[in-house]
Amino acid sequence: MNFINCPWCGQRVPQTDLDCRKCGGPLTPPVGNDPGAAPPPPPRTLPAGYKRRMLFKNAPFTLIGGIFLIIGFPIGLIFTILGFVIPGMWLFIVIGGGVGGIFTLLGGGMLYAGVQQGLDKIRPYEHGQATVGEVIEIQQDYSMSVNGRYPWAIVYIFDDARGRPYEGKAITWQHAPKTQAVGNRVYVLYLPDDPDQNALYPPA
Fold it and tell me: Which of 8, 98, 110, 160 could form a disulfide with 47 if both were Cys (CB 3.0 to 4.6 A apart)?
């Protein structure tokens, strides 16, 4: 029996299952022309834990920014207090407070950027309009790698409610040919006021 990782929570589940046994999220249907069950109308309640994964676990900027904040804010605060309390130790304020301040600002900026990226990924799933699209290309993305592994890019096309064509791309670290194929009919969620914000449903 073939297994896949649930795209909502990461749980290993049989590829033949329709829904995840852990979070209840719908799984990608078998390769073919059937896009599976239609997404529920918006606003949607997402499977448990998916938001948290997108905002924190799968968001490098959020994690790095949080670490910078945890390190920088206490350093800046402690050295600034010591500089005021201990006579003649104004260098503590300049150096320690400065370094802590820089780390805090960088961390805050990265944390904000990471959360915004996560929200951009989540928004189509919560509020997007559903339509049927088609997979037109599956290839490995050599622009990034982790431990010598390259992700897969699933490129798809769809029309919005006004019949205007759009193209989208989903990146996945799973072996995409197990779950998708060129010509597959798939559900796509897009924001009506900005169709460039779109996503495959279920996620890749």
Answer: 8
